Amino acid sequence: MNEEKFTGKADLYDKYRPSYPDALTDWLYEKTNAGSVADIGAGTGKFTLCLSKKPWGITAVEPNPDMCSVLRKNAAFAQIVNAPAENTGIESGSADLITVAQAFHWFDEEKFKKECKRILKPNGRLAIVFNERSYKECDISSERDKICQKYCGTFHSGHVGNRTSEEGDSFLRSEYFSEVEFFSAENNITMDMETFVGDTLSRSYALEENDPKFGEFKQELEKLFQKYQKDGKLLIKYTCVCYLGKL
């Protein structure tokens, strides 16, 4: 796992990234009847907070010190571990469920699978979660990507490694898990200009303020928002997806 990608971006991530629908937490709880869950690559605790709505014991694992400092504030109810996904230090055979929200693409897939097998109890399961932007019905998302391609040398889209979303779906359904169940729900987010720009700036590839082209980059994002906004707001269409499976 690349542990430095979000250094300096923890506050932006925590303030502007979207959360996840309660229906997903309900579904995971009903499907697994888990007593203990390990949320790995927890970031600032966006999904950890969702998990806290159910009465399972929670361990949250995050390697980046900046992200982990915010996680400790947001998730005081959980046991916090500052460690990489591939070597968490969590006790063997201790978790009924492992969750990964918006982070699987940073992991070494095979080393992480091995670590999951070590951590999980017999018949334990892994849930891989993503908030996916809709490009078919939302021109602003495609235009935003073009701006990022112009300014951000490390820009990427898709979620499962270097795969597209379609390739990633096939990989998780057909290769990574021995068996898998799938959840999907709309998770549309209403944004003002500050949130729209802040969400983009929280991305691992986004320019930082000390970059000479940061001002131009931010200005183009603001112009894009103005192009599509109505009464100072716009709706960004997301679909929350989850792959719940055995390894």
Please give a structural write-up.
The structure is a single chain. Strand 1, helix 3 and strand 2 (57-61) form a beta-alpha-beta unit. This protein has a 7-stranded mixed sheet, sandwiched between helices. A two-stranded antiparallel sheet has the order 7-8. The chain is α/β, with parallel strands linked by helices and 247 residues long. Helices cover 38% and strands 23% of the residues. The two termini are 20 Å apart. The protein has 9 helices and 9 strands. The protein has helices spanning 10-16, 22-32, 46-51, 65-74, 109-119, 139-151, 165-176, 193-201, 214-228, and strands at residues 36-40, 57-61, 79-81, 95-101, 120-133, 179-186, 189-191, 234-236, 238-246.
* Overall geometric form: globular
- Give the terminus-to-terminus CA distance: 20 Å
Task: Count the DSSP helices.
Answer: 9
Rg over alpha carbons: 18 Å
Q: Residue ranges: pLDDT <50 for 5 or more in a row? A: none
Largest sheet: 7 strands, mixed
Strand content: 15-25%
Which strand order does the major sheet show?
A: 3-2-1-4-5-9-6
Descriptive labels:
7-stranded mixed sheet; alpha/beta; 247 residues; 38% helix
In short:
The chain has 247 residues and is of the alpha/beta class. It has nine helices and nine strands. It has a seven-stranded mixed sheet, with helices on both faces.
